[in-house]
Amino acid sequence: MTQALPDFDDVKAAASRIASKAVHTPLLNHPALDERVGGRVFIKPEGLQRTGSFKFRGAFNALSQFTPEQRKAGVVAFSSGNHAQGIAEAARILQMPATIVMPTDAPEVKKQGVIARGAALKLYDRETESREEISEAIAAETGATVIPSYDHPHIMAGQGTCGLEIFETLAGLDVQADQLACCLGGGGLISGIGLAAKALSPKTALYGVEPDGFEDHKLSLQAGARLPSPRKSGSICDALLTPMPGELTFALNKKQLTDVAVVTDDEAMAAVRFAFETLKLVVEPGGAVALASILTGKVDAKDRTTVIVLTGGNIDPAVMAQAIRA
Amino acid sequence: MTQALPDFDDVKAAASRIASKAVHTPLLNHPALDERVGGRVFIKPEGLQRTGSFKFRGAFNALSQFTPEQRKAGVVAFSSGNHAQGIAEAARILQMPATIVMPTDAPEVKKQGVIARGAALKLYDRETESREEISEAIAAETGATVIPSYDHPHIMAGQGTCGLEIFETLAGLDVQADQLACCLGGGGLISGIGLAAKALSPKTALYGVEPDGFEDHKLSLQAGARLPSPRKSGSICDALLTPMPGELTFALNKKQLTDVAVVTDDEAMAAVRFAFETLKLVVEPGGAVALASILTGKVDAKDRTTVIVLTGGNIDPAVMAQAIRA
To answer: What would the pLDDT profile of B159-175 be if each residue is shown by its tens digit?
Structure first.
C-alpha cells in the first residue's frame, strides 16, 4: 500500500507524544566554530538524545501509536544501528517485544546497545542478504509489525520534532537561519525537518550531506527519480549507507531540499576530531558529515547563519581513537 | 593585602560582564544516567564553554575590569592548563599581552591552546619550582598584573556565573535541587557557585569532589583551617592538583560546603568513559569527578535531584583513548 505523506500537524502531534520520554536537546553555539567558518553556527547535538541519536524520536512516535494487539505481538526493525537502538529503547519503555535485524558489520557498540535493552538481535550480511526479506519473514511468523528506519510517516514525523525544536528555539532567540545542513541516509530526518522548516522558517535553505559513494539522494534529485547508491558498503559513515531514497522521504525531499553536498570519509573523520577537540562532543562519523560540510566549505557558512545537525554519537572506541590520533 | 570576599551582587555583575563573550551552557538531563543512579540528575557541561572549561568565565570577568594602564602591561597567570586557556582567550579578545606559567607535565593540548591564542608560555617544574615566584618575577619585570587561578574575588565571582545559570534554569523548570556536586581544586568555582546557591537555592547541599591524594579541602574543613594536600603530583586529574585551599575560597567554602567526597583516578577514568559512552560528552578526568561521585555512590543520588558540574573537556587524545579502551 502507498502510505500518506506526513505533514506539519503530524510533526506537532509527534512532539506531544514523545515529550515525556525524549530529550529536548539544546541548540548550541561555539565561538571557535563561528570563527573557523566566518559565520554564525547553531549546533543541534542529537548525540545527547536518549540512545545517542535522533532515532528515538521517530521510534517512540511510531511504537506509541500501536494498537493493543500490535503491542502484544511486538515490533521488527532493520537498521545499521541507531534506528535499532531507538526501536529497542522505545519497545523497552512500552514493554513490547522487539527483534532487530542488523548488518554483521554494524559497530559493536550498537549491537550491544540493542541486547542491553532486552531486544532480540538477528544479524545479516549487507552484501548478500536482504534485510527487508528477513524482517518480513520474522513478521509473518510472529505477527509483529515491521517499522522501517525511514520510509514511514510516523518515523518521518517523529524525526521532524528535531526540526520543530530547532526552529522554535531560533524563533525564541529572534534568529532566522539562512541554511540548515543535515546528514542524509534514507532521508527520514531531513524530510521531517523540512516539514518544520516549511512551516516555521520557509526562507531557510536545506542541505543534505551524504558520504562519498552513497550519494543516492544527490543522484536521485538530479535525475528527478529515485536511483540507487553507487556503493553498498565500505564507508566509515555506517549510519548513512542506505541503498536508495525512500519512496515517502524522496517525495518530500525532492520538494524541500535545496541541494546535497558529498563528503569523504577523511573529511567526516576530521569533523569527528574537531567535535572532540573543540566542541567537546562525541560524534560518530555519519553524524559528523554536516559539520564536515561547513568545515570544508562544501556548504558555505561564511557570513551566514547556519544550523548543523550532529545526528548521533554511537561511535566504537577504536574508531574514536583513530579519529583523534595525533 | 587581604582582598574582600565576593558576594552574590558580584556574581550578577560578572554575568553581565561576560554575557556577550561566554557561552550560556545548557543544563542537560539524560534518562540513562537517571536510571543508573536511581534519581534525577541535571548536568552542567562546562566543556561546552569557550576554551573547553568554566575557567573563561572568571578570566574574562577579571581581565575586563583592568584599567587602561593594566591592559597595556598585560596579564600573567599560572595554571595547570584550563585557567591558562581562559586567560589567554580573554586576553586575545581584549587585545592585551599575556604570559602563562604552566607545569611541564600539563597536557600537551592545553599548552598548544595557550600558544594558539597568542600568549607567551613559560614552563616550570611542579615538584621543585614555585609558580607564584616565577609569576611575580615576570610581573615585576614587565609591570603585568598577576591573576591567580582561583584565589581572587573577580575569578570567584566570574566562576559563580556557572551557578547563577544553573539555579536560574532550575527555577524556570520549577525544580529544586537537593544537592550539587562539583570538582574541587583551589575552590574558586564551588565558592562562586555557593554564592549563587545561597541566594537562589539555599536548601541545596553543596558537595566538593577531590581526587585521592589531593583532598586539601576535605582535610582543611575537618581541621577548620587551611592544610596542604598530601601529594604534589601524580594524579590523572591534572586540573585539580592544587597545593592548598585559597585564603578567599576557603573562607567561603568552610561556610558553604556540606561535605567533600574523594574519588580515585580509576573512578575518574570510569566516569570519563561513561560520559563518552552514554552522555556523548568529552570530559577530562578532573572534570569528571563529580560524575564519578554519583556513579560510585560517594555522593548518594538515589531518590534525589542532583546537579553535577562537568567542568572541562580538555583531555589529551592518548588519555581519552586509554579511558575508552574496551
So the answer is: 999 999 999 999 999 99
Q: Tell me whether A109 touches chain B (CB under 8 Å).
A: yes
- Residues of B within 8 A of A29 (CB-CB) are 23
Q: How far apart are CA A131 and CA A133, in angstroms?
A: 5
CATH 3.40.50.1100 for domain B8-54+152-325: yes
Domain segments of chain B: what residues?
Answer: 8-54+152-325, 56-146
| β-sheet bridge partners, residue A259 | A207
A83 Rama sector, left if φ>0, alpha if ψ -120 to 50, beta otherwise:
alpha
Q: What average pLDDT does chain A have? A: 95
Q: How far apart are CA B312 and CA B189, in angstroms?
A: 12
Q: Classify strands B98-103 and B179-183 as parallel, antiparallel or unpaired.
A: unpaired
Nearest to B324 among A29, A52, A317 (CB): A317
A45 contacts B31? CB cut-off 8 A: no
Cα–Cα distance for residue pair B193/B162, rounded to 1 Å: 7
Q: Give the A:B interface size as CB pairs under 8 Å.
A: 77
With a CB-CB cutoff of 8 Å, which residues 184-213 of chain A face chain B?
Answer: none
Q: What is the ipTM of this complex?
A: 0.95
Q: Are A282 and A48 in contact (CB under 8 A)?
A: no
Closest chain B residue to the Cα of A89, Cα to Cα? B32
Contact of A139 with A77, CB cutoff 8 Å? no
Residue A318 CA to residue B277 CA, distance in Å, equals: 12
Closest CB from A280, A283, A326 relative to B48: A280
On whether any CB of chain A is under 8 Å from the CB of B326, the answer is: yes
The span from the CA of B150 to the CA of A162, in Å, is 40
Residues 246-285 (B) with a CB less than 8 A from some CB of A: 276-283
Identify the CA nearest to A56 among candidates A248, A285, A315, A312.
A312
Q: Report the distance separating Cα B56 and Cα B86, nearest Å.
A: 4
Instruction: Give the type of residue at B231.
Output: R
Which of A30, A282, A320 lies nearest to residue B281, judging by beta carbons?
Answer: A282
Contact with chain A for residue B317, Cβ under 8 A:
yes
Q: Do A278 and B28 touch (CB under 8 A)?
A: no
Give, to the nearest 10 degrees, the angle between helix B247-256 and helix B188-200. 40
When scoring A18, A33, A280, A316 by the number of chain B Cβ atoms within 10 A, the one with the most, hence best to mutate, is A280
Residue A176, classed as helix, strand or coil, is coil
Contact at CB, A30 and B45, closer than 8 angstroms: no
The CATH number of B56-146, from 2.60.40.420, 1.10.3210.10, 3.40.50.1100, 1.20.1250.20, is: 3.40.50.1100
Helix (H, G, I), strand (E, B) or coil at B122: strand
Q: What 8-state DSSP symbol labels residue A2?
A: P
What is the per-residue pLDDT across A138-196, written as a single tens digit (0 to 9) for each? 999 999 999 999 999 999 999 999 999 999 999 999 999 999 999 999 999 999 999 99
Instruction: Classify the phi-psi angles of B234: left when phi > 0, otherwise alpha if psi is within -120 to 50, otherwise beta.
Output: left
Would B8-54+152-325 and B56-146 be classified into the same CATH topology? yes
For residues B293 and A272, give the distance between their C-alpha atoms in angstroms, rounded to a whole number.
Answer: 29
pTM: 0.96
